[in-house]
């Protein structure tokens, strides 16, 4: 049996569940560890329920068995004398790691943020990540009215999702900072307008107040009417899955360096979609395998990266 440790928010949970589907497709017996991280006080909520997903859950005993984590004195003494015999395997880095798919009887930890893990079962993954009607039941009447109104507007125009990630990204700027800059977003919007002149940009963010203050000057710099930008409001942090639903219904996408907007764009099945992404994902790692073939990459300086430069990247 393999166990996949679940960690992070909805976007990360989706990558980990996609790996689960791939390992199951290989004929392996797999369970999910949704205990180790999610019993912590500050843990993000588990949100796979918005897709109606259920999965086999590893018990604490199964987790301790595979990681050699039992706290009984006999186990502690043995570890002290002979070392820990954990079968944990952590992905090599943020790129596709084939060893993950080859492991047997392992405790797999990581984010697994690459389509390469499930390239050959993409349609199964799309079916799994079909939003359930249950998510509407979790909304109050006013929020549901707002979200359905946004959906109607999105479906009635050349809609582009534009994701601005702030919050925790500001406190870990050494990893995330200086990537999705003002210039990046200006370059992304200009590139989108080149292909879709009538674009209407639906701005989704975990810091809506900041976005409202930012957009007037941003639209002036681009010589665009403020009406071309629609700030999606009305859903609280715990209802963030609605942002992903709205993103996925847009025709085109401008991403932040975030697994959340990655999935928002990926869930759009249109072969004609335009997806713009930052040319760098993290400051401390080369994450070349997070990009899909259709993505147009733009640098922090707002420059569209030539295809030959991307091919030459390490």
Give your account of this protein's structure:
The protein has helices spanning about 10-25, 60-65, 75-80, 100, 120-130, 135, 140-155, 170, 175, 180-195, 210-220, 240-250, 260-265, 305-310, and strands at about 1-5, 30-35, 90, 105-110, 160-165, 200-205, 230, 250-255, 275-280, 295-300. With about 325 residues, the protein is α/β, with parallel strands linked by helices. It has two domains: about 1-130; about 140-310, Rossmann fold. The strands form two sheets. A six-stranded parallel β-sheet has the order 7-6-5-8-9-10, with helices on both faces.
Please report the total strand number as a whole number: 10
Globular, elongated, flat, extended or rod-shaped: what is the shape? globular
CATH topology of the largest domain: Rossmann fold
Give the % helix. Answer: 25-40%
Going by helix content, strand content and strand pairing, the class is alpha/beta
User: What fraction of the residues are assigned to beta strands by DSSP?
Assistant: 5-15%
How many H/I helices?
14
Main sheet?
6 strands, parallel
Tally of domains: 2
Keywords:
314 residues, 10 strands, 14 helices, six-stranded parallel sheet, 2 domains, alpha/beta, four-stranded parallel sheet
Short description:
The protein is an alpha/beta fold. The chain folds into two domains: 2-128; 139-312, Rossmann fold (3-Layer(aba) Sandwich), CATH 3.40.50.
């Amino acid at each position: 049996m393999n166990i996949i440790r679940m960690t992070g928010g909805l976007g990360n949970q989706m990558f980990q569940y996609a790996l689960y589907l791939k390992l199951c497709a290989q004929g392996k017996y797999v369970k999910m560890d949704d205990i180790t991280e999610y019993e912590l006080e500050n843990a993000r909520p588990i949100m796979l329920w918005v897709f109606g997903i259920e999965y086999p859950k590893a018990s604490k005993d199964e987790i301790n068995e595979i990681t050699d984590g039992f706290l009984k004195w006999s186990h502690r003494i043995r570890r002290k004398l002979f070392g820990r015999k954990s079968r944990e395997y952590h992905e090599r880095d943020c790129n596709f790691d084939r060893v993950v798919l080859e492991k047997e009887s392992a405790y797999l930890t990581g984010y697994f943020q690459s389509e390469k893990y499930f390239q050959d079962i993409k349609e199964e993954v799309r079916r799994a990540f079909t939003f359930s009607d249950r998510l509407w039941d979790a909304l109050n009447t006013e929020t549901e009215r707002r979200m359905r109104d946004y959906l109607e507007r999105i479906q009635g125009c050349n809609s582009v999702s534009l994701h601005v990630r702030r919050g925790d990204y500001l406190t870990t700027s050494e990893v995330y900072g200086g990537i999705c800059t003002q210039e990046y977003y200006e370059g992304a919007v200009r590139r989108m307008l080149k292909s879709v002149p009538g674009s209407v940009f639906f701005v989704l963010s975990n810091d809506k107040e900041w976005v409202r203050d930012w957009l007037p000057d941003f639209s002036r710099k681009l010589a665009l009417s403020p009406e071309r930008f629609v700030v999606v409001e009305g859903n609280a942090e715990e209802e963030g899955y609605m942002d992903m639903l709205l993103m996925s219904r847009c025709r085109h996408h401008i991403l932040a360096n975030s697994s959340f907007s990655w999935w928002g764009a990926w869930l759009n099945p249109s072969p004609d979609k335009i997806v713009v992404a930052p040319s760098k994902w993290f400051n401390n790692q080369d994450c070349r395998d997070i990009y899909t073939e259709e993505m147009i990459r733009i640098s922090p300086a707002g420059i569209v990266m030539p295809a030959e430069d991307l091919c030459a990247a390490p």
